Amino acid sequence: MTKATKKPIIEVNNLTKYYPVESGFLYSLLKKEQRYVKAVDDISFNIHEGEIIGLAGESGSGKTTTGEIITQLQDPTSGEIIYKGKETSDLAGKELKNFRKVCQMIFQDPYGTLNPRFTIKRTIEEPLLIHGYKDPEKRLQKIKEAIEKAELRPAEKYMYRYPHELSGGQRQRVAIARGIVLDPKIMVADEPVSMLDVSIRAGVLNLLKSLRDEMGLSMLYVSHDLSTIKYICDRTIIMYLGRIVEIGPTKDVIDKSVHPYTKALIASVPIPDPEISREGAGIEEELPDQIDLPSGCRFSPRCNKATNRCKKEDPKLVKVSEGHYVACLLADKGGDNSSN
């Protein structure tokens, strides 16, 4: 399944993103303590060369924010992203422009991310113009190559169409073509198939896998859908309220999950056969207030296995098997906590 190496192309170290709330003159005058939404809270992981790593969790878990910080669409509150030995927040000028060339993002909405006034050719040409490709013939050649790599063939059939003339799946392939036209090394795919018909999702996922193999891409695949995570990803990270609760080879995380939250996510995935039920139970309670987070394990208010210890102690990632780590006090036996 994988052509990944153990050599990291991206290192995420102690990444944090807090959003301040209730700011303003009156709030300052009353000298109230500033409160924050802790969207991403001290997470660390690596993306290896040639790897597709999944990032899963409910809405509000921090997965999209993590992807946007990696691609420099947002600045972190603290922590660092290391690319080839350099911290990306220190990049400026030409170095920053070069990083944005090698690190691209595909967004969730294939309808809202394409300019309706641009032809497909103009849409894919835009990043080439931004990055200084001045020769029109070379630009045209790269545009055709990107369109055909995205499996829209022949390219001439699609180049002069507008987004409204394409299906949802074709639009997402155009977005992918735009993302690969600069020959990036890293791709962040944020829910790339969630708005597509089920019948065409597999084709887009297979395209992403083939691009990884053909171009040597390293990919962060962000999704709430564990079935697509299992299909495409080499390793998987499960996030909950800004923290990593489980990380490891996808087969282990999905088939041998340890954290009660991961098990609940898996249990919530429907099975076509009504005679078959999954072990474990789905999650019934709503997410806690993201400003006033629970003490101890953040999942403890929703966990049917929580103990008094869980409500007091903050669990750290510990090793449960080779490459498989979980942040759960019920699994903590004092093991290694190096999860990269």
Strand content: 15-25%
N-to-C SSE string, H for helix and E for strand? EHEEHEEHEHHHEHEHEEHHEE
Number of strands: 12
* Largest beta-sheet characterization: 8 strands, mixed
Number of helical runs?
Answer: 10
Instruction: Report the CATH superfamily.
Output: P-loop containing nucleotide triphosphate hydrolases
CATH architectural name: 3-Layer(aba) Sandwich
Low-confidence stretches: none
Q: What is the SS-derived class? A: alpha/beta
Helix content: 25-40%
The pLDDT mean sits at 90
Domains counted in the coordinates: how many? 1
- Look up the CATH topology: Rossmann fold
Global shape: globular
Distance between the termini: 20 Å
- Biggest sheet: strands side by side, in what order? 6-7-8-3-9-10-12-11
Rg on CA atoms, Å: 21 Å
Q: CATH first level: which class? A: Alpha Beta
Characterise this structure.
The structure is a single chain. This protein has an eight-stranded mixed β-sheet with strand order 6-7-8-3-9-10-12-11, with helices on both faces. It is globular, with a radius of gyration of 21 Å. 41% of the residues are buried. It has one domain (8-113, 185-326): 3-Layer(aba) Sandwich (Rossmann fold), CATH 3.40.50. The chain contains ten helices and twelve strands. The chain is an alpha/beta fold and 340 residues long. The mean pLDDT is 90. Helices cover 29% and strands 22% of the residues. This is Oligopeptide ABC transporter ATP-binding protein. Belongs to the ABC transporter superfamily. Keywords: ATP-binding, Nucleotide-binding, Transport.
